Amino acid sequence: MAGPGYDDVAAGTVLELKQYHLTRRDLVRYAGASGDFNVIHWNERLAKSVGLPDVIAHGMLTMALAGRFLADWAGTQAR
Fold first, then answer.
1. pLDDT digits (tens, 9 = 90+) for 45-55
2. What are the tens digits of pLDDT across the range 10-53?
3. Alpha-carbon torsion (49, 50, 54, 59), positive or negative
4. Are 54 and 47 in contact (CB under 8 A)?
5. Which secondary-structure segment (H or E) carries 4?
6. Which of 2, 27, 43, 60 could form a disulfide with 39 if both were Cys (CB 3.0 to 4.6 A apart)?
7. How many angstroms separate the CA atoms of 72 and 2, rounded?
8. Which residues share a beta bridge with 62?
9. What ranges in the chain are assigned the alpha helix state H?
């Protein structure tokens, strides 16, 4: 599948919204894979006790999902 060409994309180009559903299990599994067991990533009570609305995903997990989105959007040729 061919994605957009270089000249097809300009500053300010808006991409479609994409959401990825992560479970608490996904967050705990990522913590194990990364070795980062900070409680804000898996313990709701402790995350809220430090002012967060809930647990939060690891920053590198968020970046991996952004990379997946961009790779899918750009298409096979761009990879």
1. 999 999 999 99
2. 999 888 899 999 999 999 999 999 999 999 999 999 999 999 99
3. negative
4. yes
5. none
6. 43
7. 10
8. none
9. 24-34, 44-49, 59-74
Q: The tokens of 14 are what?
A: 């808006």
Neighbours of 55 (CB within 10 A): 19
**Cα 72–chain centre separation:** 14
Cα 78 to Cα 24: distance, rounded to the nearest angstrom: 33
Distance CA 75, CA 79 (A): 7
Please tell me the pTM assigned to this model: 0.78
Identify which of 73, 72, 60 has the alpha carbon closest to the alpha carbon of residue 34. Answer: 60
CB neighbour list of residue 69: distance below 8 Å, 6 or more residues apart = 15, 18
